[in-house]
Amino acid sequence: MKFLHTSDWHLGRQFHNVSLLEDQKAVLEQLTDYIEQHQVDAVVVAGDIYDRSVPPTAAIELLNTVVNRICNELKTPMILISGNHDGAERLGFGAEQMKQSGLNIISNFEDMVNPVVIKTKDAGEVAFYGMPYNDPEQVRFAFGVAASSHDDAHKHLTEKIAEQFTDNQRNILISHCFVDGAIESDSERPLSIGGSDRVSHEHFTDFDYVALGHLHQPQKKGEDFIRYSGSLMKYSFGEQHQKKGVTLVEINKQGFVSAEHIDLTAPHQMRIIEGELEAVIEAGKTDPNNEDYLLVRLMDKHAILNPMEKLRAVYPNVLHLEKPGMLIGIEQEMAQAKLARSEIDMFRDFFLEAQDSELSPEQDQAIGDIIKQLSSHTSVQ
Length: 381
What we know:
- The protein is an alpha/beta fold.
- The chain folds into two domains: 2-263, Metallo-dependent phosphatases (Purple Acid Phosphatase, chain A, domain 2, 4-Layer Sandwich), CATH 3.60.21.10; 270-380, no CATH class.
- It is 33% helix and 25% strand.
- It contains twelve helices and 19 strands.
- It has helices spanning 21-37, 57-73, 88-91, 95-98, 109-112, 136-143, 150-162, 277-284, 307-312, 332-341, 343-355, 361-380, and strands spanning 2-6, 14-15, 18-19, 42-46, 78-81, 103-106, 116-120, 124-131, 169-176, 178-179, 198-199, 209-213, 219-221, 223-228, 245-252, 255-263, 270-275, 293-298, 318-322.
- The strands form five sheets. A six-stranded mixed β-sheet has the order 6-5-4-1-15-16.
- The mean pLDDT is 88.
């Protein structure tokens, strides 16, 4: 059988106060088009369907549209678990009734031990066990066991699931967690502090495939069959070089066969551009992807008037601006001291930028006198 493993949709997310919903809609259309063109037996979403526990109405409407297309129109079952961004109770509302339409939402421990079983010709019965996001306190309360870390919690939960295994089924685990040693991105919300959120991959080795969510970079950990699909699209500038998409997984009667990354491309990419202002603006005039979401690092060593306005004339979606060029070659504390001692130099740069001409000797003298008077007055105060 073949199924798609995806995770971390974060529907409704905003980035630097810009809604990403239209980009998410475009990427999900690519996903549903792929399902229509390539037969798959199921779609697995390993948590963080929404970006927050109370999602905006538009995000709920988008999920409804996607689910209707996949389950109703394309007749492909979906299996979802709740992630740390989701409100488990809200996500799981009506889950029992939705099973009849092919939508399986696993958001509690009771449903966790009752697998979604799909019968296939090539792989026989395949049991999908969904482990919703949990923390040690929830596991201690639900099962009355000692669990001081996420690793303890996952060890107990995987053992509970393994009790349900039967000889005639292949077993798939869906989990939302941080596997120890995996590569994280800066757009993920920490599960805890101090490293207690790390989980050993050893707990997962009895499964035929483990579909993981939470970390946004596609990767495998420990075994070829223990994988993160990565997030639906880029959610930080630090992810600019990551390939986003979904994972196509193949299983047969003997177990795991292969996993293939399927690219999905958002209309606006996250990019970092470095250079001096004039060079960046010149490049923007012919950049075919000038509407990408950008972080611009200006390397100019002098003050610039309204740099964001000038950049957005060619790159309309500059979302963040940094000026490391102002501090090259000196420590920040030294830079601050230098700036405090050279107000006249700063004004000269400002005047040149604003008027496109330098101060005349008379103007320079007048500004110097004013700065001295202000400094003298401040000292007296």
